[in-house]
Amino acid sequence: MKKIALPFFLVFIALYFFIACSSSTSSDKKIFRYNESVGIQSLDPAYASGQAATWVCNMLYNGLIDLDDSLHIVPVIAKHWNISHDGKTYTFYLRNDVFFQNTVNYDWQTPRKVTASDFVYSFNRIVSPEVASPGAWIFQKVAKTDWNTYSFTALNDTVFQIVLSEPFPPFLGMLAMKYASVVPQEVVTKYGKDFRKYPVGSGPFQFQLWEEGIKLVLRKNENYFETDENNTPLPYLDAVSISFIIDKQVAFMEFMKGNLDFISGIEACYKDALLTKEGTLQEEYADRITLQTGPYLNTEYLGFLLKAKENNPLLIKEIRQAINYGFDREKMIKYLRNNIGYAGTSGFVPMGMASFNPEKVKGYDYNPQKALELLQKAGFPNGKDLPEIPLSVSASYLDLCQYIQHELSKIGIRISLEVQQGAQQRQMMRSYQLPFFRGSWICDYPDAENYLSLFYSKNLQPYGSNYTHYVNPAFDKLFEKSQTIIDEVIRNEYYTKLDSLLMEDAPVVVLFYDKKVRFIQKNISGLDNSPTNLLNLKRVKLSPSQSSEQFHLHQ
Fold first, then answer.
1. How crowded is residue 431: how many other Cβ atoms within 10 Å of its Cβ?
2. Which residue of 44, 131, 348, 443 has the lowest C-beta tally within 10 Å?
3. What's this model's pTM, rounded to 2 decimal places?
């Protein structure tokens, strides 16, 4: 049995019971409850890396802009903006009714308005070596002044300007990332590194309590500036309660008991219980659970290391192409993922991106005869004399790789599986130690450049995320040209050409384009359905006819 520290127990009791005032009566609060099995390391947006932290930071903070469910850029603190004709100067005109939150740890004596100077501070903080934010790269195209400072300027309280060193069309969309949230200098100065656990932002929910590894509670920001179409203040919820149950089977049981309002993704412990093989909700749960699905901007793949190495058969393009043709992606998705996902038979850029075009970008379908022909051409007929190829994989993807291993063995390609911890695998990928590995790439911003940049030679480690060590001067030239094109339609045409070139060279095996899947209690409505899978609770409602977690927030 886990032992809970007494101080936390006493604090948490205060959240469960209303401390009555002379004229007050208790009232139920609308609390949205979900679980984070991987935990959260920081509530500071400077370190908003990974889904768990990003979800929470999306509730606590705002930035200049955001993305809607169709990946269109929409205003948030910036009412509107201008981009200069040369594509280098971005001028943002800010709202003047946005205020930082009053929290249990920081009480402003007078309301503290968000100004352009706060964005200058926040963005300079992200690029500061002392902070070492993993999001510093989003500002790498920002110009520097004669004093070697970044060109972030407050022209006045409501006008903020950024100057780039060269045109970079994806830049505006990158500002929707949670790294680019605004924070108050006074609070960061007060808490220093402890700002990670005493956050203050301008978002729809504000910090209330965090007992790390046990419970995180956010409450409604009563002074939040956004309203709905009827001018009703957002958010509708009173609070958000996040638990940290590590065992996913236990978390699933809590959802089935009604103690959690939703679960995201599919896990082996419950996928067959809730889903049919066709990917639909089991009929017995139709009156209790809502299934929400849609494209998720995540490409799952196997990567080949193309760095010169003696006796590496993966340097032979025909071998890589044979592996691509050697297994049935459709069957894999249906039987191992209950049809959650889309077979990766087009390019590396996933379904849901504007440049995704299966008519123009042809990937690999199941064609064992073609695979055998390619093996013959490579000098290994029926796989004869082809060395065994080690494939590095984490435990959660072992079943998929075992299937691929079995299918490839039928055409003479022998694969050995090496199961590794995720963190160890990522480190070995970065240091080019894995000849064949499973990877994934989740969209950071809504431009295919985010995916194609993984194959640009100037992004070799340690400078970028080119984990395959793919180097192709023709690809580089076309990629660089695409980044000078401001017109999105024309730029997407370049992206399809780049993706086609990748598929011909086959530095990767595209497994599938992910599919977002959420299981939601029937009394929940208004949950967003963005292909970025960001959790946005501003418009979520709980049906008054059904009970939610009924604890009272300490006033």
1. 11
2. 131
3. 0.84
Nearest partner of 176 among 135, 118, 226, judged by Cα: 135
The helix/strand/coil state of 100 is coil
**Coil/strand/helix, residue 48:** coil
pLDDT of 425 reads 86
Query: Of 115, 143, 105, 110, which Cα lies nearest the Cα of 127?
Result: 143
| Contacts for 415 with CB less than 8 Å, ≥ 6 apart | 388, 389, 390, 391, 401, 404, 405, 408, 409, 436
Which three-class secondary structure state does DSSP give residue 20?
Answer: coil
Closest CA to 214 of 14, 379, 9: 9
The residue among 349, 340, 366 whose CA lies nearest residue 281 is: 340
The pLDDT value recorded for residue 26 is 38
* pLDDT attached to residue 308: 81
Residue 27 has what pLDDT? 53
Element (H, E) at 33: strand 31-35
- Render pLDDT for 9-39 as a digit per residue (tens, 0 to 9): 433 433 433 333 333 333 589 999 999 998 8
Q: Tell me, rounded to whole angstroms, the distance of Cα 196 from its chain centroid.
A: 20
Q: What phi and psi, each to the nearest 5 degrees, are found at residue 221?
A: -85, 105
Residue with structure tokens 């590995």?
A: 437
| Cα→Cα distances 391→366, 400, 421, 438, 439, Å | 20, 12, 14, 8, 11
**241, amino acid identity:** S
CA angle 45, 51, 57 (to 5 degrees): 30
- Residues of the chain with pLDDT below 50 are 1-26, 545-555
Residue 36 is encoded by which pair of tokens?
A: 């984070």
Eight-class DSSP state of 413: -
